[in-house]
């Protein structure tokens, strides 16, 4: 378990780095944006909000270290400050309201996209040299399509022209959220198009990397030996080739997850989907800095946790990491 | 990596280059094609494409084509600047960390991990949200900050593997300075990775800029593809069906991204030949195969001259310039093959007759196995000797039906004589020697071949380290064979059999649950032998089974194989380049050179009275080295 322990320590460090980055960004950006903001907002908002902002940016004259300690202490208490745009709602409340939507949408689509993509990648690797090779340029194109553009096209064709799906929102306005079929079916119906967007824009990347890894692995002696053993093709492909080829995909999860999260945020904006991406967009529009930072923090932490999960899965997949010593 | 050689190998790369060049030209010269200014409003509002407005107009009457070509400048410019900046950081962090190691590497590794895990887009949004003024340069700068980590990680791994290679070790031994080694030895070899990392950075940066501008976080006074989409979105262009407004910029981003990714395909295929498809694959065989052969010959001759055997060194050296395996240099008539009668007690089990295997190249066919006939008898140990590239592996791969594309059997036959004993489920009526069924190995159907494999012919690969599946236990690798070939055997019996087989090769049966990485090299090779024996096949092909082991272990494993052969009575085809080893264990010996059988006969006779000059040279070199007494 030494491997996992080292990974956990690394992630704890990364989480700390993200917290610190979050603390330093407003203080280190050129041109003192906070002072500028305060100036700009003067008279436009509630004086009480004004004070809250000043406080959350350490416009108190305390030394930096003292500010940092206060920052960590209020984080530990779950206090992310107050939103400017929705004053005086606490940032943590807004973040917690947005998070389930994104975790549901991005979590489920990422898993589907990963499974479909790696599966297809293995199939394409196995059939290399046949007509399926001609799918590669198409997949490369698909992989380069920006998420938000894909969303625009889908909206144009499926919502505006054909009227099959709703253009925006997460559920029919007027419904009360609850565990009844009417609400759940409305949520699923509204989530369909954003989900399709994210899957279409992200699965090709998994296909391409898995295909390349599997093709590389197919040349290894252990795969030749499996074939020489007279095992059925499926068994060779799944238990020997894919089982080994998937390892780098799991390690590369961090890299890809960042891209998926970024793309999904833009997708949310197009569909007015009330997740963290849309909320972040709104926060930026309102120059709601406390909310922006709270959202950045929570997205970073969610990605860190997802990476940790990927590493735990990796330990199950690769016995070499379970070695003691 | 000369461009002229690199260009024609792949249609994908060519398509990618055409796309990239097209967009660069568009960005540079496109604005000359239009008389409109990208920001100027007009009176034609939201018009579809026409002669006056090639890509129509926006809601305020701006010309979309003008925006598109001016936007190309900004999008490409930001992409290039951010790509270059990001790649500089990647190279510095990756190469320095990977090469210098120690504390600086640890710190850089953690830094890379932080930027790798913290999601780029939200960080980008927060950073630009704070930027007091958003010029294109500051946007490019921020994009670079958030995107260097992935490439740095790859470069670090590559540098760490490069610094252990011989040429770098050699440079260090000669006292070259570290900076010089990094720049003249490491960097050139990491170049494909740097190039591919750069292309990915550019794609990433173009996408990031588009995303930011789309959110209204870019510089909204400058027109980029992203800001076009932003204004199209905020004007609800898609509700009016104004496709001409938002389709071109998004499509351009996707096509440009695909183009750069296609170039990357070429770079990947260049550094990993297994990925090649179609035509580039066929060419690869032509250019790589003989090259590899020449390399190995050169290696062999270096080894031989090191042992001060001028005779062999010359002979081997003469091979080196002749790059094509199997072709005969004009003028030098080859010595005729020397085939002797075999006197082996068993009945024939595998008969190879006039076998020809070709590798079709782009302009010439390589005869990897050229008219070879050998016979393996029951219980016989046939030694197959020859250097790398002599065709011995191609021959055994033909017998095991493991030839890979593009190798093709173009002539001859391989016959397997199946005895009644070989069929475990079949009725053993009498079991007399007369019940032998001749099977055309080359004509087996997929299903027949699958059933024949391992049950009647098993293989021990050269390196057990690579032949065992690293991610499943030893037991599982026995178990799948038994599950497939002995479907009626209960699970408990299967495990008991695996334990018995391990015991037979001198391994504690408790190790059945061990994973390959928990075993030593010698133990892994024993496990591989045990797996080969589990179905009690009649023939085992051993492809240099002891080459990867050190001498002492080699001896132990060999003794084990001989003892097992006495117990089970299987026949062995044993390939090696080590003739002295073969002379000791073989019943008969076949020597191959350049795809042809040059000498074949009983081991003792070949040793005592070699007739072919090549065999004589090989034996003489062994005698000089003191390997023979």
Write a short abstract of this structure.
Chain A is mainly α and 325 residues long. Chain A contains 13 helices and no strands.
Describe this structure in words.
Chain A is built from 13 helices and no strands. With 325 residues, chain A is mainly α. In chain A, helix 5 runs parallel beside helix 13 (289-317), helix 9 runs antiparallel to helix 10 and helix 11 (253-271) crosses helix 12 (276-285). Chain A is globular. Chain B has 2 domains: 64-271, MetI-like (MetI-like fold, Orthogonal Bundle), CATH 1.10.3720.10; 277-456 and 537-629, 3-Layer(aba) Sandwich (Rossmann fold), CATH 3.40.50.300. The model of chain B is unreliable at 279-331 and 422-433 (pLDDT under 50). A 7-stranded mixed β-sheet of chain B has the order 1-11-10-4-9-8-7, sandwiched between helices. In chain B, strands 3-2-5-6 form a 4-stranded antiparallel β-sheet, covered by helices on one side. Chain B is an alpha/beta fold and 629 residues long. The radius of gyration of chain B is 33 Å and the shape is elongated. Chains A and B meet through helix 1, helix 6, helix 7, helix 8 and helix 9 of A and helix 4, helix 5, helix 9, helix 10 and helix 11 of B.
């Amino acid at each position: 378990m030494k491997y996992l322990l080292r990974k956990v320590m690394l992630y704890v460090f990364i989480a700390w780095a993200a917290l610190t980055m979050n603390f330093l960004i407003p203080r280190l950006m050129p041109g003192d944006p906070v002072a500028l903001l305060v100036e700009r907002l003067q008279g436009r908002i509630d004086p009480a909000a004004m004070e809250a902002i000043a406080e959350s940016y350490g416009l108190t004259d305390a030394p930096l270290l003292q500010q940092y300690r206060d920052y960590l202490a209020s984080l530990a208490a779950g206090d992310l400050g107050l939103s400017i745009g929705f004053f005086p709602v606490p940032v943590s409340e807004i973040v917690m309201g947005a998070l389930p939507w994104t975790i549901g949408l991005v979590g489920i689509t990422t898993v589907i996209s990963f499974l479909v993509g790696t599966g297809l990648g293995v199939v394409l690797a196995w059939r290399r040299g046949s007509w399926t090779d001609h799918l590669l340029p198409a997949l490369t194109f698909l992989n380069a399509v920006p998420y938000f553009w894909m969303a625009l096209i889908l909206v144009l064709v499926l919502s505006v022209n054909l009227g099959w799906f709703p253009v925006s929102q997460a559920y029919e306005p007027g419904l009360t959220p609850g565990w009844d079929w009417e609400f759940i079916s409305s949520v699923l119906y509204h989530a369909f198009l954003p989900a399709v967007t994210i899957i279409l824009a992200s699965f090709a990347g998994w296909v391409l990397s898995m295909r390349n890894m599997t093709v590389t692995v197919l040349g290894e002696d252990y795969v030749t030996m499996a074939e020489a053993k007279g095992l059925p093709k499926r068994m060779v492909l799944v238990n020997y080739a894919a089982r080994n080829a998937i390892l780098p995909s799991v390690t590369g999860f961090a890299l890809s997850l960042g891209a998926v999260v970024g793309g999904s945020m833009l997708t949310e904006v197009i569909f007015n989907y009330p997740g963290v991406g849309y909320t972040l967009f709104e926060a930026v529009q309102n120059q709601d800095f406390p909310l922006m930072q709270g959202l950045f923090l929570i997205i970073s932490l969610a990605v860190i946790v997802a990476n940790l999960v990927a590493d735990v899965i990796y330990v199950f997949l690769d016995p070499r990491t379970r070695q003691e010593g | 990596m000369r461009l002229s050689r690199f260009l024609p190998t792949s249609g994908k790369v060519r398509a990618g280059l055409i796309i990239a060049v097209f967009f660069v030209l568009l960005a540079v010269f496109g604005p000359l094609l239009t008389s409109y200014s990208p920001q100027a409003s007009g009176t034609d509002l939201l018009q579809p494409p026409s002669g006056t407005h090639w890509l129509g107009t926006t809601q305020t009457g701006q010309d979309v084509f003008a925006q598109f070509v001016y936007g190309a400048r900004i999008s490409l410019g930001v992409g290039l600047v951010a790509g270059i900046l990001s790649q500089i950081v990647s190279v510095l962090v990756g190469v320095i960390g990977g090469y210098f190691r120690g504390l600086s590497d640890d710190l850089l590794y953690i830094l890379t991990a932080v930027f790798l895990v913290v999601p780029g887009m939200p960080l980008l949004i927060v950073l630009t949200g704070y930027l007091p003024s958003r010029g294109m340069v500051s946007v490019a700068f921020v994009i670079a900050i958030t995107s260097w980590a992935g490439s740095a990680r790859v470069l670090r791994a590559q540098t760490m593997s490069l610094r252990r290679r011989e040429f770098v070790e050699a440079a260090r031994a000669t006292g070259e300075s570290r900076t010089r080694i990094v720049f003249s030895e490491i960097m050139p070899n990491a170049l494909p990775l740097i190039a591919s990392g750069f292309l990915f950075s550019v794609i990433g940066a173009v996408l990031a800029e588009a995303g930011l501008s789309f959110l209204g976080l870019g510089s909204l006074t400058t027109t980029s593809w992203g800001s076009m989409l932003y204004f199209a979105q905020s004007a609800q262009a898609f509700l009016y069906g104004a496709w001409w407004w938002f389709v071109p910029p998004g499509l351009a981003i996707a096509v440009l991204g695909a183009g750069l990714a296609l170039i990357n395909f070429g770079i990947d295929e260049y550094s990993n030949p297994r990925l090649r498809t179609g035509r580039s694959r066929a060419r690869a065989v032509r250019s790589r195969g003989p090259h590899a052969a020449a390399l190995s010959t050169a290696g062999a001759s270096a080894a031989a001259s090191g042992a001060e055997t001028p005779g062999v060194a010359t002979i081997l050296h003469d091979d080196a310039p002749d790059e094509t395996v199997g072709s005969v240099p004009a003028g030098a008539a080859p010595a005729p093959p020397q085939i002797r009668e075999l006197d082996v007690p068993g009945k024939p089990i595998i008969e190879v007759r006039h076998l020809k295997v070709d590798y079709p190249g782009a302009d010439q066919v390589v005869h990897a196995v050229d008219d070879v006939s050998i016979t393996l008898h029951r219980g016989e140990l046939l030694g197959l000797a020859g250097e790398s590239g002599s065709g011995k592996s191609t021959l055994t791969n033909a017998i095991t039906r493991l030839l890979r594309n593009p190798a093709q059997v173009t002539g001859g036959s391989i016959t397997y004589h199946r005895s009644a004993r070989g069929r475990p489920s079949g009725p053993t009526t009498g079991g007399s020697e007369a019940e032998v069924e001749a099977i055309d190995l080359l004509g087996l159907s997929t299903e027949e071949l699958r059933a024949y494999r391992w049950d009647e012919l098993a293989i021990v690969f050269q390196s057990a380290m690579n032949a065992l599946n690293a991610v499943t236990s030893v037991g599982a690798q026995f178990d799948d064979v038994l599950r497939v070939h002995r479907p009626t055997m209960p699970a408990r019996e299967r495990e008991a059999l695996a334990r018995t087989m391990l015991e037979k090769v001198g391994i504690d049966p408790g190790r059945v649950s061990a994973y390959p990485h928990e075993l030593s090299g010698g133990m892994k090779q024993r496990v591989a032998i045990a797996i080969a024996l589990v179905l009690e096949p009649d023939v085992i092909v051993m492809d240099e089974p002891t080459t990867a082991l050190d001498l002492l272990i080699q001896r132990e494993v060999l003794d084990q194989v001989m003892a097992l052969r006495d117990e089970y009575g299987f026949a062995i085809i044993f390939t090696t380049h080590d003739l002295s080893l073969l002379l000791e264990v073989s019943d008969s010996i076949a020597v191959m050179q350049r795809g042809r059988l040059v000498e074949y006969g009983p081991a003792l006779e070949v040793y005592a009275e070699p007739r072919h000059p090549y065999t004589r040279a090989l034996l003489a070199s062994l005698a000089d080295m003191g390997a023979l007494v």
